[in-house]
Amino acid sequence: MNSARPGVGVPRAGTLLAALVVGVTVVGCSGGASEPGAARENVPLEVRFTLDEAAFTAPPAPQASVPFDIVSSDLDLDGDPDLLVNWHHLARLELFENQDGAFVLANPVGDDGSGLYENEGIANIYAPTEETLAQARAAGVAGVYVWHDPSPSEDWHFYVAPEEGLATLELRANRALTPRLDERFVKRSDEFEAELAIDTMLHFQIGVAFVATQLAVSASLPIFVGADLTPVGTRADLWKDDPHGIAWVDVRGTAAPEIFITRGGLMGTLLPPHGPKVDRFFEYTGGDPLYADARSAMPGGYGRGRRVEWVDIDADAVNELYIGNTDSPNALLAADGAGGYVDIAATLGIDFVAGDTFAWLDVDGDGGDDLVFIDVAGFSVAYNRGGRSFELAAGDDIGLRFPAGSEPVQPVGSEPAQEDLFDALSLNVLDFDNDGRLDLWLGGHGRERKQALYRATGDGFEDVTAAVGLDAAPLANSIVFLDIENDGYVDAMTFGLSAVWLHNEEGNRFTVEEVDPQWGVREFTRAVAVDADDDQRVDVVLVGHRRMVVRNETRGGGSALRVLPHAAGSDPVGTVVAAFYANGMVRVQRYGSALTTQYSQGLAPLHFGIPPGTSIDRLEVRWPDGRSETRAVGAGEDFIELRQ
What we know:
Helix content is about 5%, strand content about 40%. By secondary structure, the chain is mainly β. A hairpin with a 4-residue loop joins β43 and β44 (about 600). The two termini are about 40 Å apart.
């Protein structure tokens, strides 16, 4: 059961009864008594959403910050979507497990068995000062105790309990370091380093300029770190994290998807002589902890990570990871054959410095995924040449022209800097008109954060934004795509100053419908579209200053077929599945694209809505290695696992 407020009902012409019904308050289980997702030709269509604010079991969402992103995948392969909420550098990463359509926090503070830690083996570096200081004193063990103020913008705390004689400490940071203690204990100090000699029990603080900072500590005594006073030996390399894009995909052949989290450098580019950053990487174990830390497999680097996506560029069933960086070259991480990864972007000519908004899809029809990205010139395309260097071309050559009046990307080093840390620009791959071709949707462009749509024509693209009514769409900070009424056509929902449904009218036009303003959706709410409660209707999960689920309780819509591609060793991202309907409609989807956000990549079964009165007869599948197959769809089938 859940408590929910009624949302907006958007009936089609001739459904006045549904329009009256939407004003009735619904209390009870989501979905009511009707069959989940059932297509009923004799039931009037009533598009209905309810806002479920009791869907999350967790402490209140942080009020002093807004989320950076939200990502979904199936963490334990139990068939339902789970969530990762990225609060940037301002709050801890949150892992939510789906339990019967509700989301339960799986890594609470003080009882975090997830293994998804900022620093390997240390559950939490942040701790209240007085409590932790008392705990360190009570330990009665000579050593150096290190923890961070609960606020990421404040200082590091040290408590030194020396044995007889001096305790020596060497500190090094990648941003300006300020020792806050009596000068008699400071042997040497410059902008990034300090050497201390302490002969008495002493509590003091070390300031390191905010944010995305590294603090390396070496000491003559054992070091204990964080709220749990975890022993780490006599050396510690501690990070206050700056998580950006997340990729939640199985790439190692483990029991469930791995999690990759790229780090940025929020205030300034990381450069030598400071040590390189290492992005976080976790393998699912299902034990205690839930994930094993595998960041040692990732190469160090100085890139300011933004967007990430796995792609199989060479059709060998082993995925590579493309990282779009800001003010630094993009990276492509490929397996090195020894359990690690190496950056091969420069070798293939795709180490672009501008281009952290991108999409992978087969543009030229040769079977290999090409890279479409946005740089200072607007759209560019890097064509995949099968292991050779990618071939760069202007997007204009194939009809991809950046909308007039919007600046695509500022040149590196331009003044004044205009970087928007919560950039709304996104590039999504979808088939909006069910013609069997993958189109491109550009979201959040320009100061007004508008939408643009490019229809694939077979030999390029054409801008159909005005023709389909998307020029009337309002400002949007985030966008999700879903087939709300299961009519087979993908709709969109955007979130900015208001929540808006962009209703796809059979691929011909998008109509703009405002969702209930009483929901009070804040400007920087992040969203992901998933079937949270397994009723064949796609819902929308929202996280901002509140966590909530927009339950899709549409009546009289169609049914759905979900399709999940599988391959040995890794998720087969890039698999293209075309659904052929009895009414002549053909809808195509690319596995790995449906749950991409501005920054991240999640995975879920492909959702094909089936309008009343028709059915899906067959699927045509093209795997990343170029092999194809056809699979008949039987009467009543609503879930199909495809295995290569």
